[in-house]
Amino acid sequence: MSAPEIFLKPYNPKEQEAEVLALWEKSDYTNPDTCVKRGVTKPDAEAYSIVLPPPNVTGVLHMGSALMVVIEDILIRTARMQGKRTLWLPGLDSAAIATQAKVETDIYKKEKKTRHDLGREELLKRITQFTDESKATIINQLKRMGASLDWSRYAYTIDEARSAAVAEAFVRMYEAGLIYRGDRIVNWDPKGQTTISDDEIVYEERRAKLYTFKYAKDFPIAISTTRPETKVGDTAVAVHPNDERYAQFVGKEYDIVFCDVPIHIKIVADESVEKDFGTGALGVTPAHSITDWEIADRHNLPRPQVINEYAKMTVEGRLKDLKTKDAREAVAAWLKEEKLLEKEEDVPQNISTAERTGGIVEPLPKRQWFVNVNVKFKNQKSKLGNVKPGQEVTLKELMRTAVESGAIKIIPERFEKNYYHWIDNLRDWCISRQIWFGHRIPAWHHEQKCIPKQGRESDVGKCIPLVVRVEKPICQFCDAEYEQDPDVLDTWFSSGLWTFSTLGWPQETSDIKTYHPTSVLETGYDIIFFWVARMILMSGFLVGQVPFRKVLLHGIVRDGQGRKISKSLGNNIDPLDMGEKYGMDAVRMSLIAGMAPGTDSKISEEKVRGYKHFANKIWNITRFVLENANGRGDNAEITRKEDRALIAEAETIAKQVSQHIDTFRLDLAADAIYHFVWHRFADEIIEESKSILKGGGEVADSRRSTLYSLLSTCLKLLHPFMPFVTEAIWKELPHKDAELLMIARWPRYTE
């Protein structure tokens, strides 16, 4: 028997990948309902589900996101072949701040217009046009990677279904007292003109000046700061209660003119102050520091704001309207003039910058919407750990017990400590953003003076200033229309609902009953606080379940020299370009090889090229086996003891690969099957078989069946890692146990 003509030519990834993609799409086997309907999966089979962490609609797949896709696809393909009712649900994220910033920048470059020139409706129309084009690009890239996602269940973070879920979640949390509107210090991005969360801050180390000085010649205590311009907003100096140096001054108050600005300073004792840091005294600027705001809370201090939303000074005198950097220099010069400066040092400083815009973040007091993570509420649903229905609990306690109880397992386990540390230091979460793209806050304000209906003078003052509901309300006392809050919700609020909003919540759908909690959340270790913790918070409160059973964290993909991949270094390796050049299977294997959970891994073009040779090796092995099969398939009789030993050896490899996948050591699984296929099957078994096959007779027949069986097993074990070349080969096999390899049964082995 000769091999099919296709094997007479070298493996051509471009040609074969397009054909295989078409086969998968036509089959619809990525949809678990189709698998059940056609008898591929039993209706009562164990469910296995993953929701794809939604890529940003503004971007393209880079090596980090490609690694995530490959890891999840390996888990999904394995589960599907093991007969589980398998769902991998796709979606995209609106990435509101980044998307709006990009569109606004493009509009200004081309038309010299701002969003305010266009108006809200027109800007959102332009953003929708942009995102519609971007969505198609990302979806195509995911398909090209071989991601076996169920596109019939595709979700977008701001589509109609997700919008309804977000509004419902907001209302329920508001009614439970977990969402409030209040005046707090927030991280303000002057460049983006919006608040951002702590997790959206990027710290950049820069050189700075540390100034040590007194407010006035007769002021008894010196303080140190890198931001002297903020000291015009100081209302206190805080010292440690046990610091004997300053004990005599605690409680005293001083009126001072500091750089033309009258300020009133009170000396207070507060345990948050570190005695041994600097002078041991802290100038308290309540309106421009979260720590100082909390000190002001404890000591009932005033909070004058001296910097505005554009990072300009608001005080009268020489500092008025100066940018903070210029004001810093002006205050330093004044201190020198007044001979108040005691010391000036060059020090390294971590500067807070906004991840999306690069703007230097200013802590400012703003009226915003917050999720209260410390307030007690009556738990209605969750049954996690020690938390029972009807018990009073905080969201922080709910988040902690989800992991402490073992309901969620974080892999690698060492990241649990990071998770607990973040929860212990978690402040109320600011969820409002001053942009126009995203989920608009479902709250309506009626703040103008109420003019009651005629004959209803007794209703003066009865108007409710704020209502939270989905419909646009009208005041029952004066017929005035309420105005919807102009802000939108933090992206992480809506994506926190991702595991259950994508399955149909708030309705009790069959998908939620079948697939929630999801089996695994796979993501980068750098996003555990952005997203993982908030999903646990939202699911625990709203659904009464953990959102996933396991959290698998991968590391950063670095270049061949171990450097972080970045545009500035010019070391970016595009996974799609590499796939075009060497085949997507080669890219997938190069990403997995050497990638242990939670650790960084390296990739280079040489590494990708090496796995292209491996794909060729599998192709050539198949040609040899089929040329010598003589019509014998893997069900033909294997009579020789030596051949049965080879089958047992393959079963041992199947067991090793399966166990490694079960424990998320995909790198070890890939390594095991790689070495068996290349070094054992190709280099030893096939070479040994050449003389056996020449001898003919029963011995040759047994070996032919053995080779075919080994090939079938290897293709199945390789398929989750290298789906294209294995599926391309499978469709050419004369004897096979499934029409497509993606639904073939996983190799059996003895436990």
From TrEMBL:
GO terms for cellular component: cytosol. Residues 643-748 form the Methionyl/Valyl/Leucyl/Isoleucyl-tRNA synthetase anticodon-binding domain. Its EC number is 6.1.1.9. It catalyses: tRNA(Val) + L-valine + ATP = L-valyl-tRNA(Val) + AMP + diphosphate. It is an enzyme of class 6 (ligase). InterPro entries: aa-tRNA-synth_Ia, Anticodon_Ia_Val, M/V/L/I-tRNA-synth_anticd-bd, Rossmann-like_a/b/a_fold, tRNAsynth_Ia_anticodon-bd, Val/Leu/Ile-tRNA-synth_edit, Valyl-tRNA_ligase. One of its GO terms (biological process) is valyl-tRNA aminoacylation. GO terms for molecular function: aminoacyl-tRNA deacylase activity; ATP binding; valine-tRNA ligase activity. Keywords: Aminoacyl-tRNA synthetase, ATP-binding, Ligase, Nucleotide-binding, Protein biosynthesis. It comes from the Bacteria. CDD domains: Anticodon_Ia_Val, ValRS_core. Residues 20-600 form the Aminoacyl-tRNA synthetase class Ia domain. This is Valine--tRNA ligase. It comes from Candidatus Kaiserbacteria bacterium RIFCSPLOWO2_01_FULL_50_24.
